[in-house]
Amino acid sequence: MKFYQAADEGWAELLEGPEEATLTPDAEKMATGRDFGRRRFPEAGRFLLWDRPAAELSALVPGLEFEPHRADPRRAAKIRLPGRMVRVGRLVVLSARSGMPAGTLLEIGSDYWRVATGSTDVLVAELSGLAGEPVVGGDVARELRLSATDMLPVLSEQDARVLEEAYEAAAEHDQFWVQQLERYRPLPLPFAGPESGEMGWQASPWRKVEALARFDPTPRVEHLLAVWVLYLARITGETKIQFGWEAEVARSPLLAGLFAPAVPLDVEIDLNRTFAQVKPSIVDAFVRATAAGSYTRDLLVQVPQLRRIEALRRTLPWDMAVSVIEGKNGCWSNDADHGALGATVTLYARAGDGAVRWIYDPARVAPEQVERMTGHLATLASETLNPALREVPAKHINLLPQDERELVLETWNRTEAAYPSDRCIHQLFEEQVRR
After folding, report:
1. What is the pLDDT confidence band of residue 42, given thresholds at 50, 70 and 90?
2. Dmax of the chain from CA atoms?
3. pTM to 2 decimals?
4. Position 184 confidence tier, pLDDT thresholds 50, 70, 90
5. CATH number of 198-412
């Protein structure tokens, strides 16, 4: 009853406001859907602080009694778990108090958890991932090996500030990422096989792209990315290219799972222009994406136009992705090339020496084909630096290594055969027709 009275009082206060007041919509806030009034973001980014009273936590999970079909995904509360985060669709304040420390996981049901707070216990249910993908509470507990009496992470005041600051910093680039994500274009690798269910990964050996040896790390990476975009345009026939790019995100354990690990790098290329003419726009896209970092994964449910793109909620939204590994003095951490960012292939490049390798799904791409791709990139990198080809349109730059070029243009075109001298020419024609 108090809940309904509070709601009525709130509406009355709103309706009694100044008659002459005007509302000026903010275009950016309307585009991103992120506006929390005087406080741009609520405390701790709306993560539940278990040491607070249950009633305070309940206020963070909007009741759906009035209009359940109009639930606001921007206002969903969240739970911080080891290595991941989940959204809470429903929170029920219980009258019982277990007396256990705040944050104790008291009970794990098939679709709910009972948790101790700073006052009475609560039930949390209707859990989902940050991007809106449904999850089952019991399954999450099993994945994280949680059991009753385990402690969920209790966020400190400093943790809360870090989360708020992370959301604030990400919000500066929300509009940029919304524009990029709205243009989501799945670009499959033309020669990849169909998806086979469970993914498995294999890594190719590192191979240096010798043509890039004379560059410093930054121009080396820029040239390689431009070559990669040209390669994709050539093999797919597309001029609007979008692939995944490993984002620069904070490595803090507190923020694990908050940001998208891969973001879209979206470029358009005119193959009728020279490589020197198309390269600047590719580099510019790379620079802008790098500067913008990443987006918080719940942006996908906070913005209506993004909620409609189901593919963005996949674990690996892009079939192809790129990651650049920074290194000093030729040394690179082994965990830098930790895994796949693309659903089919991920190109890893070392800025220090220009070496590349692939993380790929062998069920979809054969190792021999991956080796060919490496050869194509190396050839394109060399050919695009050839002074004699500066005025050649990008669509005509050779991408085949010498041995493959001879195979395609010469070996496969050798059709001569020994002439059987004991037969007339018309007999040979008749035999050919019968074949």
Report:
1. low
2. 108
3. 0.79
4. very high
5. 3.30.559.30
